[in-house]
Amino acid sequence: MRLSKRMSRALRHDPARVGLVLDEAGWTSLDALCAALGVSVADVEDVVANGSKQRYELAGGRIRARYGHSLPGHVEMAPADPPAVLFHGTGAGAVDAILRDGLHPDGRQYVHLSPSEATAREVGARHGRPVVLIVDARAAAADGAVFRRGNDDTWLTDDLAPRYLRRA
Description:
One of its GO terms (molecular function) is tRNA 2'-phosphotransferase activity. By secondary structure, this protein is α+β, with helices and mostly antiparallel strands. The chain has helices at residues 3-13, 30-37, 41-50, 95-101, 117-125, 137-142; strands at residues 28-29, 56-59, 62-65, 85-91, 111-113, 130-136, 147-151, 154-157, 165-167. The strands form three sheets. It has a three-stranded antiparallel sheet with strand order 1-3-2. The model has no long low-confidence stretch (mean pLDDT 88).
């Protein structure tokens, strides 16, 4: 298994499986991660620096995944002003429920959104025939929704009501 996938499992989904403990903000020692995965600091730094999804961050000898956690709680990230419009990719089978009930994290800490319709379509393709939803992020933010920037391709928020969503 590629190191980035192993890191993802350890830092986003099942740290106990490799003997890690994450603090309330999702951080663990870089040395502890390297020992748990049997890799060098340089190996991990390479994934952080060159990973296509900018999924991890390093600070002060510690590491965490920025987003995508299925663990309880929230990895705290600073709120940010979103672009006027964001996109959400999903499979055709989920669209009616989303347009009726809104978007919910469903096993993750945050709802994931994209600033790119093309990226949202790629994400939707993971779930069958892709459908892209347009999110009126400006209106949602004006009504109190808090947005966070996960990376260049990922925006995060909590539940979004259906009134902010429409098909692309």
